[in-house]
Amino acid sequence: MWFFQPDFEENNLNQDGRALSMELSWKYCAVSDRFLFPRQFRAVNILISYFRIPLNQTNMKKIFTLMLLSGMFLAAQAQTAQEPTAEEKAWMAYMTPGPMHKMLADADGEWTEEMTMWMAPGAEPMKNTATCVNKMILGGRYQESRHSGNFMGMPFEGVSTVAYDNAMKKYLSTWIDNMGTGLMYMEGVYDEATKAVHFKGKMVDPVSGQALDCREIFSFIDNDTQKMEMFQTEQGKERKTMEIVFKRKK
Q: pTM of the full predicted structure?
């Protein structure tokens, strides 16, 4: 609760009722948590003395009203600044990086990739190597990974983005590369028991043009080792299509 308490003397007036000198003190008080905090303001003294405002009942009422309204406005502004709305709190929580983002940031740096791919059911696995560079972007909110190597005699480039959405409580992943023109999008949750993020999403089969169900298990083996396993479902049957073991470059 905010209020003004005027305290003035009217005995120092000249003959025409103008103030020559006086002691006018305003106690601007705030009651909070059962404590009283007064502050002395002399602005009104200066205003009246400098402009020689007549100290009569009408003028004093006007001054009291002005100061009261000003105090109420300042109190409302202070309360608004100190107490964010529920919407503001939600946005702050949504935009603030947390432990899940820290886990992504721990993978910053250069990594080698040992890749194994199965192009068809029952086919012999294909082996390949590549490298990637991880870095957090946009204030530590997203992990960007740039992959490079060779695939079937052709230069290969790929870019992945991983986010943790504080509102959804999920990891989000996108993938693009120079071997296609589409984008793969997946959502996943972290499993503490297996130390892995389990993603699910869709990928397009270029042959049929149909979207296939796919899933990915991204495991955090230790500080210097990670593993990605990719599975896709074709004609109702799931098979493993790729495995990549990541090793941090020393």
A: 0.68
